Amino acid sequence: MTCYPSHLPPLIPPDLRAELLRNGARGEDHIPVIKLFYPRGAPLWLVTAMSQDGDRLFGLADLGFGCPELGYFSLREITSVQGTRGPLIRRDRRFVARYPLSVYVEAARMAGEITEMDILLRLAAGALRTGRSTH
């Protein structure tokens, strides 16, 4: 159960929730399914999977401190961030990932933040292919 109000469209709609749950049952390098963001600041999450409890999400998190982290985070915590008009965290409905999460992780290491810049994503993909990763 999350704190997201029922009168708003769901942060994670049923079709994307189902995809995240399927990914959570398989340990692979998935393409991110959703991008969550805070419109007034830097926090950003690329989410690839959800645990069966419906709360633990897996992906790349960037809270704006220059060190994006790969790991698990709580949907309940994310949706508990409230403003006077309701939840502050939004889903980027136009986000379409083109690479597996590992490429976004590598590009984030290069940039110091989650990036969708095509040139950095291509460089990151190439570095991973040739074994010249920055980590």
Automatic annotation (TrEMBL):
Protein's name in the database: DUF2958 domain-containing protein
- What is the top-level taxon of the source organism? Bacteria
A Pfam family (short name) is DUF2958
